[in-house]
Amino acid sequence: MLVALSPYAQFQPSCFHLVKMGFVMGCTAGMAAGALFSIFSCLRIGIRGRGLMGSVRKTMMQSGGTFGTFMAIGMDI
């Protein structure tokens, strides 16, 4: 038996979309946490200027990538 779909029908997102959404959410949260922790630790030990920016950028990318990967895996499960 055929079921008529209305123009307002909701569809389930695909697995790839869920994994992508999990990675983006995790990357955003990880980068925010990395920024807070690295700025605090760099200022505490006395790093200023370009050293501060380089260290903060590196820590944000590392924590964002790591947390994003784990969130993507979690969304896949």
From TrEMBL:
<dbReference type="GO" id="GO:0045039">
    <property type="term" value="P:protein insertion into mitochondrial inner membrane"/>
</dbReference>
<feature type="transmembrane region" description="Helical">
    <location>
        <begin position="23"/>
        <end position="47"/>
    </location>
</feature>
<keyword id="KW-1133">Transmembrane helix</keyword>
<protein>
    <recommendedName>
        <fullName>Reactive oxygen species modulator 1</fullName>
    </recommendedName>
</protein>
<comment type="function">
    <text>Has antibacterial activity against a variety of bacteria including S.aureus, P.aeruginosa and M.tuberculosis. Acts by inducing bacterial membrane breakage.</text>
</comment>
<keyword id="KW-0812">Transmembrane</keyword>
<dbReference type="GO" id="GO:0005744">
    <property type="term" value="C:TIM23 mitochondrial import inner membrane translocase complex"/>
</dbReference>
<comment type="function">
    <text>Induces production of reactive oxygen species (ROS) which are necessary for cell proliferation. May play a role in inducing oxidative DNA damage and replicative senescence. May play a role in the coordination of mitochondrial morphology and cell proliferation.</text>
</comment>
<comment type="similarity">
    <text>Belongs to the MGR2 family.</text>
</comment>
<dbReference type="InterPro" id="IPR018450">
    <property type="entry name" value="Romo1/Mgr2"/>
</dbReference>
<keyword id="KW-0472">Membrane</keyword>
<dbReference type="Pfam" id="PF10247">
    <property type="entry name" value="Romo1"/>
</dbReference>
<dbReference type="GO" id="GO:0030150">
    <property type="term" value="P:protein import into mitochondrial matrix"/>
</dbReference>
